[in-house]
Amino acid sequence: MAYDAVGLGNAIMDALVKLEDDALLVDLGLTRGQMHPVDHARWLEVFLKVRALGIEFHSGGSCANTVATMGLCGAEVIYGGQVGADEFGSRYARSLEEACGRHALHIDLNLPTGKCLSLISAKDGERTMLTDLGAAIHLGKLGGLGDHIPSARLFHTTGYKFLGGAMRETAFSAIAIAEANNVPISFDVADPFVARTIRADVEALIKDHVNIAFLNREEAEIVTGKPIEAAIEELAGWTDTVIVKLGSQGSVVLQGGERYNIAVYPAKVADTTGAGDTYAGGFLYGWLRGLPPAKCGELGSRLAALTVGQMGAVVRDRNHIAAVKVQVGVA
Q1: What is the secondary structure of 49-79 as a DSSP string?
Q2: How many angstroms separate the CA atoms of 214 and 277, rounded?
């Protein structure tokens, strides 16, 4: 079948734990609000210490969150990545199927599933994360996912895939297939770490390959080397459509020489996990349905507000999503 959108990302199982205070972070030697790369052993050590506090599991990774949001809005989507042959991999596949109805996951028999333990402050929703990328970053081939790209209306991926190794080669293979078949490419930088580590690559990707680019404030400033307003002005000339997410100040959509300022919608913050990913998913769903830029941004912003009001990166209540679609005026 022909899909509205095909996504390629790092398949990461999200494990979410709410903390009443920061005492445990101090005890574990973790810096509040930061992402801590760890190996499998360290991840399990911390996981076992917090398990009794109650854990929610969700399929995660920036690209998966965005693709799942498009799917839950009503688009026909498929996502590809790699998991291990373990319980977390099985959980990931089930969670993704609930959101998208299907997936094109590859199973690595030797490496554990990638996972992110998010320790979430009950006071302000701030996340402190421990991430073991595991099998996710070793995807060395597109497999069946590549067969779906030529007939898709959109291909989506993120900056994480271009950090190096086999996953970088796989991502460029997917981009080549999309370009050869005139499939538009959307790209989310997804992390300031990506912008700092491969700044020149991010600029080249957006200018030379990408049709729709998503960045947050910090990423925009890093890749341009300019303060935010000057960064926005420069980014407007990099590709067809650029979206800069500004957190509590909303977002900016740049297209065809026009600037659209998108409001942020009020929400009681429970967990900020994946708000930017959900915004991107809402925006892209609007784009798939032919909405004008401002309406695409509004849909993304309203869905992001729903996300921060719950635990987990993806809004799975289809009734809430349907209500937002009615507010925006999209089928």
Answers
A1: HHGGG--EEEEESHHHHHHHHHHHHT--EEE
A2: 9
- Residue 115's SS3 state is strand
Angle at 172 between CA 166 and CA 173, to 5 degrees: 90
Q: What is the pLDDT of residues 238-258, one digit of tens each?
A: 999 999 999 889 999 999 999
How is the chain split into domains, by residue range?
A: 5-10+60-110+134-328
Q: What is the pTM of this model?
A: 0.92
Cβ atoms of 306 and 323 within 8 Å: the answer is no
**Radius of gyration over alpha carbons of the chain, in Å?**
18
Tokens representing 270 are 């429970």
Burial label, 54 (beta-carbon count in 10 A; 0-12, 13-18, 19+): exposed
**pLDDT tens per residue across span 98-149:** 888 789 999 999 999 999 999 998 888 788 989 999 999 999 889 899 999 9
Q: Report the pLDDT value the prediction gives residue 269, as an integer from 0 to 100.
A: 67
Strands (E), the chain: 5-8, 12-19, 35-37, 56-60, 77-80, 82-84, 106-108, 114-121, 127-132, 155-158, 185-188, 212-216, 241-245, 251-255, 258-262
Domain at 5-10+60-110+134-328, CATH class: alpha beta
